[in-house]
Amino acid sequence: MSKQFNVNELQLKYLELETLLDITNELSSFENVTVLLQEILVKSCAVLNASSGMILMQNENSDLFQIEAEFNIEVAALKGIIFNKKRGFFNEVSQNKKAIHVEIASDPFLSKTNCLHGLIAPLIDKKDLVGVIILFDKESRTGISGFDASDTNMLSAIATQAGVAYNNIRLIESIKEAKTFNDNVMQSIVTGVFTTNLMGEINHVNRAAAAIINLDRTTIIGNHYDYIFESNDLINDLISKCEAELTTVTETQVLLKCNNKSTAINISASPLINDLNEQIGTVIAMEDLSNLDKLKSTFKKYVSKQIVDQILENDEMLSLGGQEQEATILFSDIRGFTSMSETMHPNEVVETLNEYFNLMIEIIFKYNGTLDKIIGDALMVIYGVPNATENDTENAVHTAIEMQEKLIEFNQQRIMHSKCPIKIGIGINRGRVISGNIGSRQQMNFTVIGDAVNLASRLCSAAKSDEIIVADTVWKHVKHDKKFKALKLNPIKVKGKEKPIQIMQVQYYRPKFNYQAAYTMIEQFLTQYLPKSYVYHSITHIKDVVDQVERIAKNEKVKKSDIDDLKLAAWLHDIGYIWEPKRHEDRGVEYASSFLKSLEFPTQKIQKINGMILATKIPQTPKNLLEQIICDADLDYLGRPDYAENSQLLLQELLLTKKINKTEWLRIQDSFLTKHVYFTKTSKSKRNKLKSIVLESIKSQLKIKTNGRSRA
């Protein structure tokens, strides 16, 4: 009997050990604390035949315990119970660190479970109680019973393995949390950071670095830095030097070229050291300078480049205060802009000013001027502040001259588009000024003040449209330069000065009327605005008329100056179709008069151009040879092989406003060709013969149509 009992006991022990091994293996596979605790509880209840159970874990910030896993128990019955480490069974378990049996009815915590027997085992972490496993009421064939010593040993063993698994998972979670925190910090840093291992392979890169390198992280990770920066020898050399010398290496203003993108950066490479002070790789930091460049670029739209650069280099410039120094001041002002803007839409006013300022400010910065401020439609520019050079006054005069010359070209485009030209007056003075930041701590302006500034403003007011007026102090400083020419004007009386001020009018190049430029402008305007539905009176027809007037005029021995005028009239003769097709000649004359006058085209010649345009009106009434030439050129196709093609385009255009059948169209052509005559010897000799053939063909077609209708 004794021998049989020992065998059974050994078998039972073997089963317990096997079960414990299985539980240990399973517990080591979990990576989540909540799932682990629930699995520990379920396995414990199954092995020990407990009817229910729960696991309580200590709150990290107090001595209180809370239910983290439960099995077949009414948790609601325990609501409101505060499980305190220093009370009840917790105190005994905490002190002894061993499993205990409890009678449920006498326990202040567990009596509400309505269970009878309890077995409690501690979960230990480095000798500290961190939780307990509680099993209730062992089930057997005879009913509910208490737990025996073997149950206590088994639960203790399970709790020991569970404690190890719990600690491992907590350690892993802690490491993951630390890694996630570090990754989040790295990803949040605006500086680009990446690390390499001892083989030079990149093993970590943050979001900013990937953006700077212009490659996705999957492409960067695992590749050698030589491959990633294959087009950047300077960067590769810098990292190699850091690896070889085990020292931090830095370079500023490096142009990084990667994946078809160039970025200015500051870069540093430092050895990556472990806890044993051994190098395990390299850490590289890159500062993207493009945002700084954007800031500087944006800032320079509001103040001059010189001031921006000085502020970035010298913080003291941001303090209030000033100094006295020599400077040249330029004022410019649009003449009559207030009255002109009253006839314009607000958006057009803003658009006009922006176009004008873009042109003027570009010239100002070209000659190193500092745009002090924009005052309505006026500009105030200073030279010699904050950086003084020997050429400040010359630069101011160069600026004024180029502003006026560029404005001529600018106005040609405005006139072409039926917009009012902009006229400006400019005044320049040189003298002592007080320069510096003037304002409050919240807002300040770098500017200049003083009598010299006031006088420059007065000279601008005295200047007429298109004039550049400079004070005698300016002229004395620049007159040695033979490029500058000036007329001496009568002294003027200005506000704030007792004596009249001697002034000079600076001369600049006023180009003569440029026929070729005018042709180009008109062609661009016609191409853009001629209605596309007018397939005959199109840019193609106008170009043809231009070509024909030149051909006919040369054959008629017309002088070149007249040919230039003929071509100008040809370009303008159908421009009225843009606005009023029915009276396009008259509308064209109105436009031509305004356009040519604004370009300072001689008045007598304007009348000559208008006469040629009006002469093309049907019936044609030329009064001189030039008008005869443009009339013949306008209808040159009547005696050419391409008559049929042109007549079809004309018919297509006429059908836009009225219905015309084939017979009616033949009659219209018959009547028109019969009445039409060429005026010049050239056209009569070159075109009459074919025109007669065309007319005979039309008459024949018309006769067939008429006879066919009569027989019907």
The CATH superfamily name of the largest domain is Nucleotide cyclase, GGDEF domain
Distance between the termini: 140 Å
- Report low-confidence residues grouped into runs of 5 or more: 1-5
CATH class term of the largest domain? Alpha Beta
Residue fraction in strands: 15-25%
| Count of all domains | 5
Largest sheet: 8 strands, mixed
Q: Taking Cα atoms only, what radius of gyration do you get, to the nearest Å? A: 49 Å
- What is CATH's topology name of the largest domain? Alpha-Beta Plaits
SS elements, strand count: 20
Structural class: alpha+beta
**How confident overall, as mean pLDDT?**
86
Can you give keywords for this protein?
single chain, 24 helices, 712 residues, alpha+beta, elongated, disordered N terminus, eight-stranded mixed β-sheet, 5 domains, Alpha-Beta Plaits, seven-stranded antiparallel β-sheet
Compose a concise summary of this entry:
By secondary structure, the chain is of the alpha+beta class.
Describe the structure.
The chain folds into five domains: 2-174, GAF domain (Beta-Lactamase, 2-Layer Sandwich), CATH 3.30.450.40; 189-292, Beta-Lactamase (2-Layer Sandwich), CATH 3.30.450; 300-506, Nucleotide cyclase, GGDEF domain (Alpha-Beta Plaits, 2-Layer Sandwich), CATH 3.30.70; 512-529 and 537-615, Cyclin A, domain 1 (Orthogonal Bundle), CATH 1.10.472; 635-712, no CATH class. It has 24 helices and 20 strands. Strands 13, 14, 15, 16, 17, 18, 19 and 20 form an eight-stranded mixed sheet that branches. A hairpin with a 2-residue loop joins strand 5 (117-125) and strand 6 (128-140). Helix 18 (560-572) crosses helix 20 (603-615). It has 712 residues and is an alpha+beta fold. Mean pLDDT is 86; it is low at 1-5.
